[in-house]
Amino acid sequence: MIVPTPTPDLTVDAFTRAFLRELNFGQGVELSASSVNDQYLALARTVRQYLMSRWLETQHRQRESQAKSVAYLSAEFLLGRQLDNALLCTGLEEIADEALRGLDIDLSELRDAEIEPGLGNGGLGRLAACFIDSLSTMSVPSIGYGIRYEYGIFRQTFVDGHQVEQPDTWLELGSPWEFPHPEAAVTVGFGGQTESYTEDGEQRSRWTPAWSVLGMPYNYMVPGYHNGRVSTLRLWSARATRAFDLQIFNSGHYADAVRAQTFAENISKVLYPEDSTPQGKELRLQQQYFFVACSLRNFIEDVLPADFDLHRLPERVMFQLNDTHPVIAVPELMRILVDEKGFGWDEAWEVTQQCFAYTCHTLLPEALEVWPVELLGRLLPRHLEIIYRINDDFLAQVRATYPRDELKARRMSIIAEHPERAVRMAYLATVAGAKVNGVAELHSQLLRDKVLDEFATLWPEKFTNVTNGVTPRRFLRLANPELSRLITDAIGGGWVTDLERLRELEPFVDDPEFTRRFRDVKRRNKLRLAGVLEKRDGLTVDPDSLLDVMVKRLHEYKRQMLKLLHVVTLYDRVTSGELPIEELAPRTIVFGAKAAPGYKMAKDIIWLINSVAATVNADPRVEGRLKVLFPANYNVTLAEKLIPAADLSEQISLAGKEASGTGNMKFALNGALTIGTDDGANVEIRQLVGDENFFLFGLTEPEVTTVVDKGYRPAAYYEANESLRRALDMIASGTFSHGDRHAFEPIVSNLLYQDRFLVLADYQAYLDAQERVDEAYGDEEAWTRSAILNVARTGFFSSDRSIHDYLGRIWGAGPVH
Ligand code: CR6
């Protein structure tokens, strides 16, 4: 294939010229008059030039090869900054640095000018971003489909210790990484009615939507690492259709017509900020249908050749459903095949069942999406009909397999009857999907045994596991350049795309030079973090203290409260005189967490963390020994600075609640030791790094079940454990709220009388484990050894390995070289 414009050469000179051209002709400014933002945009567009021919060629090859593609459907892609990754993948880091230095521009300043696209809440959205990175790097024909939210995850600020949300205006200063394609917009219908008619003796249905919106695609480059490939992420933005407002304009209602435009554009306006606790809002269902309808249409009409026989669709694509958010794609494909393409029901179902696979990301019942029939029927009447028919056929199968067990049919029905008639999206996905997977061994086991047990008995071969992973490009190579250099010096650079090779580091635990350098790297990463937090938040970090980090969404099941009770206990022990200050090993505890804006308890916990931090940090009695930092607005960019600096990774969810976790993997890979429960992927991390290099504590999942079944009474733990009692009393008595005893009453009462996530039950075990941490940290050499072994033994957690597992176990697709 011939690319019309040649890519600039990989030289400082060529790069400089391309950059100046972008600055002058793209931004329309002279170098001397350019702002940092101008320079950032010009730089981004320069790097883009180097990716462009690879992008066109990747698309061309994908079309030519006729290979099976993976279409990853996800309502969230938490991408993080793009510039760094693009420089890395093109091998331009040094050239760009030198070119800019020649112009007296500091590359790191331009890097910092980028506002990250925060189009996701947490682990699920970040996982999707890691997966498209791996797919591209592994040369698998693939495309990511999602929503271009105008406002991503809110920007968190603190006012008097309380979380206050600000809109995330990530598009404000221009977004050089996206390519809008208005000419490729597609129309999506909503509402209206269906009518049935007979054709060739067959009952058919016709849907007439009442209103529609346009979906406009924005394409993003997804560069592979040093493999000459650039895949595509296609995010959809909602616009008003012309027909829609013309009608209103013609009737003379100008203002109404403009309002209609806003109404349509609302669909992609904002990312719902709930992580694992969906709110069941109508607009959210609109978002979900909007993006999957656009995506299926795009794949069928634009990605596939014009004359493609859709009976063969399973040869060409697997649509991977990232949680239940895109599951409405199942009835949508049925509708396209049956209503638009004239398929019979059975042949359409045959095709559909082979084209979808479903990943479940939770064990929390409240996270499983359920849409009221009333709402679904009003918004998508034809889809509701289709879901009913799928359910009828499915229940017939259940009744045939289990005659005289009507209760079973009710339990397994896609339609729930109580508390209101509603569609269980996870069940629909399980019935339709060729495969269903959980995201860590334990999670997949619990899915089979608990959440979807009756489905797993009916179709055991449908269920499988793919343990999550993280991309080593972003979370090791980019985030931790110094450790990367050390590793490459020791074992060569192959690990970046073959992370199991980190195993080759094991012998270096006995190499004094290597261990010294390893320690130095950690220390310099702490200094780097100190610089970032100083500048960003005005916080100071002592690089000689143990850096103890808990960063993740704020959720009761993750138990930030347990970590906080540890802090309060240490504070109490010193200030009461029980523990001489010299005996307290210096610690800096860092929290990072956003709470869903409507999640009252989570927001109260944020307020309490900030209040404890304010009290502790101002108290001279613990100065230099205990410090609590809570930088606001934890995001991917901050994670990339925090994780490489951490000594201790807090992964302390109640066993059986965290599906996998992915932060846990990032920390271990960067040489932090984990203190954690036997939950999610912690289980596999511990198996790999070895018990002696992991601080395990707490109830196991079966023990949790036993405690709860016996009737858990948290107050009993309070009564029996003096140090716990003192910590809770300290919070309740106003120590952290200027004497106000009411401030944290909801938190204290909740722990004493409810404590759904067994914080009090695990308190003592957690404190004991923390004592083991202090002791271990005191032996610098042994600690370094454990840290190195954590790096060496966690190569398994590369998202490349996850993708490899998906390819073999679920997708039946492979790389095209
Ligand atoms: N909240 C899980 O809770 C998992 C990610 C990615 C989550 C977390 O344990 O690592 O997905 N689940 O699989 C959902 O979002 C529903 C998450 O990020």
UniProtKB/TrEMBL annotation:
Its EC number is 2.4.1.1. One of its GO terms (molecular function) is 1,4-alpha-oligoglucan phosphorylase activity. Its cofactor is pyridoxal 5'-phosphate. It comes from the Bacteria. Keywords: Carbohydrate metabolism, Glycosyltransferase, Pyridoxal phosphate, Transferase. Belongs to the glycogen phosphorylase family. Allosteric enzyme that catalyzes the rate-limiting step in glycogen catabolism, the phosphorolytic cleavage of glycogen to produce glucose-1-phosphate, and plays a central role in maintaining cellular and organismal glucose homeostasis. Phosphorylase is an important allosteric enzyme in carbohydrate metabolism. Enzymes from different sources differ in their regulatory mechanisms and in their natural substrates. However, all known phosphorylases share catalytic and structural properties. This is Alpha-1,4 glucan phosphorylase. It comes from Actinotalea lenta.
